[in-house]
Amino acid sequence: MHMCISGVYDHKFVFLSLPKLQKNVGLQSEAKKSRKWNNSSFSCSLNFKKPISKLDFLTKAASASSSSSLSGSGAELNEQVLVERKKKTQGIAGIDQDELQDPTHLADPDSCFCEFNGVQLHHKICDAVEDASSSQYPHIAKRVNFPMILLHGFGASVFSWNQVMKPLAQVIGSKVLAFDRPAFGLTSRINPVEHSSPVSQDTRTLNPYSMMFSVLATLYFIDFLKAEKAILVGHSAGSLVAVDAYFEAPERVAALILVAPAILAPFTAQKVDKEKQGGRDKQIQESSLDFNNPENLFFRFCSLLSNLTKYVAKAIVRMVKGMGEMINSLYKKALSTILRSAFGVTVVRMIIDKFGIPAIRNAWYDSNQISDHTLQGYTKPLKVKGWDKALVEYTVALLTDSASKLKPPLAERLSKISCPVLIVTGDTDRLVPSWNSERLSRAIPGSCLEIIKNCGHLPQEEKAIEFVSIVEKFLQRVFGAAEEAHLQAPPGKSNPDMKSSPNIIAPAANAPAPTPIAKSGPPLPVPGGLVEDGIFT
């Protein structure tokens, strides 16, 4: 018996035998816009009210053919259906978006979760293990009594520290903790509109995607490790979190290690130009005072008119500035609304799909060294429910953050850092160039700079062994020298100069000598918030 497919209204498929089909075709021959094909083995009549997609047609056709006696046709149609369905659900950066999961279902065996202000923070902890391998660092393990907290950069996660967590734990002889900042890794994605996490007893709330939240989470983990101080290691944008955590609570930070820091270093040349310009203005003002003889009424009148003009100009400038701030505020609100819309989320997904994997490859000096395991580690967070909306909220938090306006610019506060600082960068970093790290080292008094050759933006991954060695030598110079000075000091007296200060750090043999900068006073406490103007964009 010959079988065929007859498409009728509402896309329903009816299977008819040949005699019934001929009768059916005869009934439909009078219908307008109908087409009919006849041969000895197949007949079909189609008349659709609505267009049908190629995928739906192939799916229904394959289902019909599989139950018919047409040999081979069903298999071919099924294969076409699979191809079309694969194209439809290709995913973002190779990750299927049809089966997103809860972060806890994607966790590794050594993953841990803890709640901070209503957010489940994903973190991992490595402790020093007393075994044969620990004999590599016998001299340093007894002197570093502080744990270490690792802060990843934008788009990264705890995964970026996997290679160095255990070696660093052996180096310091203490615990090393790395956690995923909100919007990244396996930390839970929260809707900030529905989420309310009070900072104190007042009515203020803390946006979980704000940088201030990451700062307070860092200080929370210091308490979590039951330590008075900790060594903060920040990579890329994580360096900004580390520096702001220091300004938020300088007494809780034993040392700072900034890896490829995405912090815009100040331009020293511009400061010199401003000073010279100020000198010129002073000279002009003095000469004008000499020229304006009080006995000359004409010049006195001109002076009054000039002062009046200045007052009016300042008032106009204030008015224009206020209008500019209002327009800027409206612009930010409008942009935030667009980003939170379905269109904005779609744009974010397109950007991640288009530039996600290339950005990872561009971060390495030799992209051929990137394994499939590394790519899977970086794209794994794309399997978390709500990852796209969380990334949008993170972007909105950066745009609308008002806390940075309450504090001086970060470039003006870098000279206030008094704890030991190590800056590590790759000589071929394409994302944050090494010359910016060199300028940053000159802006922070007493800081050490180490440049790793043939290395890109990820020294802790691309040159893990060399990175750990640099950190080990830095900690040995800082805490080793402090302990030796304490032991050599007379009983009951301590050497005030041998505190944990960057002035006692001797530069490494292969490190360029930092530019001498006068030692500043004790750090000034800066209340709350995070500076966003130092982000390297």
TrEMBL record:
Ranges where the AB hydrolase-1 domain occurs: 149-468
Bias type Low complexity, positions: 502-518
Span of the signal peptide: none
Annotated region (Disordered), positions in chain: 486-537
GO MF annotations in UniProt: hydrolase activity
Xref: PANTHER family: ALPHA_BETA-HYDROLASES SUPERFAMILY PROTEIN (PTHR43689:SF1), HYDROLASE (PTHR43689)
Protein name, UniProt field: AB hydrolase-1 domain-containing protein
Organism: Fraxinus pennsylvanica
Lineage: Eukaryota, Viridiplantae, Streptophyta, Embryophyta, Tracheophyta
